[in-house]
Amino acid sequence: MAMTNPFQFLQQTRAEIAKVVWPGRREVLLTTVMVFIMALLAAIFFFGVDLLIRLGLEQILNMFG
Q1: DSSP SS3 for 16
Q2: pLDDT at 1 over 70
Q3: For residues 52 and 58, what is the distance between their CA atoms, to the nearest angstrom?
Q4: By percentage, how much of the chain surpasses pLDDT 70?
Q5: How many CA atoms lie within 13 A of 51 on its CB side?
Q6: Which of its termini does the chain have fewer beta carbons within 10 Å around, N or C?
Q7: For residues 44-55, average pLDDT
Q8: Residues 9, 17 contacting (CB under 8 angstroms)
Q9: Can you tell me the distance from the alpha carbon of 18 to that of 25, in angstroms, rounded to the nearest whole number?
Q10: Mean pLDDT score of the chain, rounded to an integer?
């Protein structure tokens, strides 16, 4: 593979960075809120699953012990 000189590399890097479309303030806020909501829903779901497993195991252990 051919080596690119540092000046050409910097030019190509700047050209690629110029193509990036940065999100606006509103889009960042909305996606942040959605992430927090999804994290909360996942936490509630796994809490419920954990609770059901714990209750089930307690019932099984109480039958034999």
Answers
A1: helix
A2: no
A3: 10
A4: 97
A5: 6
A6: N
A7: 98
A8: no
A9: 19
A10: 93
CA atoms within 13 A on the CB side of 23: 8
Angle among Cα 10, 16, 19 to the nearest 5 degrees reads 145
Query: Per residue in 32-43, pLDDT tens?
Result: 999 999 999 999
Q: Is the pLDDT of residue 3 over 70?
A: yes
Token pair in block for residue 2: 């051919």
54: exposed, middle or buried (C-beta count within 10 Å: 0-12, 13-18, 19+)? exposed
d(CA 39, CA 37): 5
